[in-house]
Amino acid sequence: MTNNAIKVPFKVSARTAKLIGLENFSTEEGAVIELVKNTYDADAKNCIIIFDLKKKKVKEKNKKGEEVEVEKFDKENSSIYIFDNGVGMNDKIIQNQWMTIGTDNKLYEHTTEGGRVKTGAKGIGRFALNRLGMLTSMTSLPNLLEVIDEESSEIEKDSEEEPKTKLIENITNTSFDWTVDWKDFDKKGATVSDVEAVLSAKDNLNLKQEFLKRFSSYPKIKKLLEQIDFKSGTVIEITELNDEWNEDKLSKLFGNLEMLLPPEEQNDFNIDLFLLNNLQEFGNVKRAYYDDYDYKINASYCQDDGKTLKVEIYRSELDLDALEKKYPEVFEFDLMKKSPYRLEDFKNEKIELNIPIEKLTSEEVDKNLLERIGKFDFTFYFLKNTISDDKEDGDLKKYPYNSINSANRKSWLKKFGGIKIFRDDFRIRPYGENGDDWLRLGERQAQSPGGAGQRLGGYRIRPNQIAGTIKISRLHNSSFQDKSGREGLIENDEFELFKNIIREIISLFERDRNVIMYSLSELHKIKNEEAEKLREGKEEAEKFKNQDENGDGNTKTNFSDGTDYSGSAKKLADAFGYSKKKTKRKMMKLDY
C-alpha cells in the first residue's frame, strides 16, 4: 500500500464547543453581564434588560397526599430581552464574526469606532445566550451595510478573488434576523459545522417603533424608549429559560450591575433593568458614586512619566473651623509643624505627592516586573461608620469630627464597599465583592489592631471601612490575564507586585491619618491632665474660700500638691499659671 501523506483537519463536536463556552459563565448573572458588555462594545449609549417572567398552575400532592393546585415558574414561556442602540451588525459581521466561535476580532482590534476599549477577547460571549435559555432570536439594525464595490468588481471581473466590498450608510433601514436553537448542539455526532442558525434580511425596520409596539402597555418602559435614539441597534430575545428567576435573583443582578461600572458622576453608558410584572422594583442602574467620605486618595502611575506615582490626598474627616479655633495647640507639636500637617496644609483642597515607584516600599523591587505592571489609576475612600471612640470630658472632645450619617454609610459600604478592579470600565469579579479581602487588609489589621490615635506607626485600616476602584486596561496591563473561568486574574508575579503597590498606597493614607489622630489624642491627654488640675484647684479654692469666710483671712491650708498657701487668691492663680506653662512644654516635646 502506497503511503500518501494527507492533511487531516481537526473536528470539534458541537457539544464540546458548547461546553467550553458555557464554562466561562458559571452563573446566570455572569451571562447577563457578558451580554451587557457586548452592548458596550457595540458603542451603545443605552442597554435595556427586560424580564418577562411567567407562572403556571400545576397540580401536585401536598404532605397529606392530597392533590392541590400551585403556582410554578414557567421556564418555557418566560423571556429575557436585551436592547441596545449600538452600531448593530450587518449580515457579513453576523456570518464572519458573530457565527465564529473564538473569533480573534477583539484580540487585534482593541478599540471600537467610538473609541472604547473592547471588553472581551476570547470570542465566546455568544454562549452566554445559551447559558440563559435554549432558544435565541436576534434582530440587528446596522448603521452601515457591507455591499459589493461595483467599480472594483468591474475592474477585477476576471480575477478569481472574492469581489471587494465597501460600507455604505443603511438608508434602507435593512435589518437582519438571526435565530438559533441551542439544543442542536446536543445532537448525537454533530460537529460545530453541522449546527446552523437561520439568517434573514428585511427592509424598512423602525427599531424604536418595534420596541414601542411590543411594550406600549408598560408606561415606564415606553417613556424611556421614547427618549432614546434607536437609529441603529440590536434586540435579543431569549426563551425556554434554563434558570428559575425571581425578584431576589433580580435584586442580586441589579446590585452587580450597579457595581459593574466605576463610580463616576458622568458617563456615556446607561443600563436599565425592568421586571414586567413589577415595574416599580428596579429601573435605572445608578453608579456607586458617593461624596460623603473622611478621606479620598487618588493615585496614578504612568511608566512614561518617569515611573512616578502621583498621589492626591483629600481630607474631610475633621471640622476645619473647630480644629483651628478649639485645637490650635495641636499645631504647636513638632510633628504637626511639618508639611503636610500644618494648618495651612489642612486649608488646602488636597495634598499632592510625587513618589518614585521604586521608593514606595522598603523592599527591593524587580525592575523587570515593574516594567510589566503598566499604568493604572487607584481611587480609595475611607468612611468610618461610627464615632463611638470620641470620648468627651464635658465639652472637651478628643477629635473635632465632621458629623456623619452612620446609617447611610453602613448601608452604602455594605453595598459598594471593598476595593474593586475595573478593566476598560468594566469590573473584574470577584475582587471587592461579598467581603472578598483580596489585599488581605484584615490580616494586616489583626496583627496591628490599635486605633489611629493610640500609637505612631501601628495604625492599619479595617477592610469594612473602605471602598476603592482600580482602573487597568487590556492595552497597558497585558500581564494581567483572565483565569479560564473569567472569575479573577491569574496570580502571577506581576499581579503579586501590583497588590504590594496597592497596599503601600493605602499605607500613605494610614500614616497621614495616624499622625493627625495621634497628635489630637495626645493633646486630649494633656488637656485632660490640665482640666483635672484645674478641677482640683477649684475644689481647693472653694475650701479656702469657705475657711477664709469662717476665719480671720490668714488661715493656712495644706493643698494636695504639698505647697503651702496663705489666704491669697493671687498665689493660687500663680500655681495654675505654672501648670499651663508645664503643659505647653510637654506639648512641644511630642515628635515622631
List the keywords.
Heat Shock Protein 90, 8-stranded mixed beta sheet, 16 helices, 23 strands, 7-stranded mixed beta sheet, elongated, 592 residues, alpha+beta, HATPase_C_sf, 3 domains
| Dominant shape | elongated
Compute the number of structural domains. Answer: 3
Mean pLDDT: 83
What CATH architecture of the largest domain would you give? 2-Layer Sandwich
Unreliable spans: none
Rg result? 34 Å
How is the biggest beta sheet arranged?
8 strands, mixed
| N/C terminus separation | 90 Å
Strand segment tally: 23
Q: What do we call the CATH topology of the largest domain?
A: Heat Shock Protein 90
Name of the CATH class of the largest domain? Alpha Beta
InterPro entries: HATPase_C_sf
Protein name: ATPase/histidine kinase/DNA gyrase B/HSP90 domain protein
Organism: Sphingobacterium spiritivorum ATCC 33300
Pfam family, one: HATPase_c_3
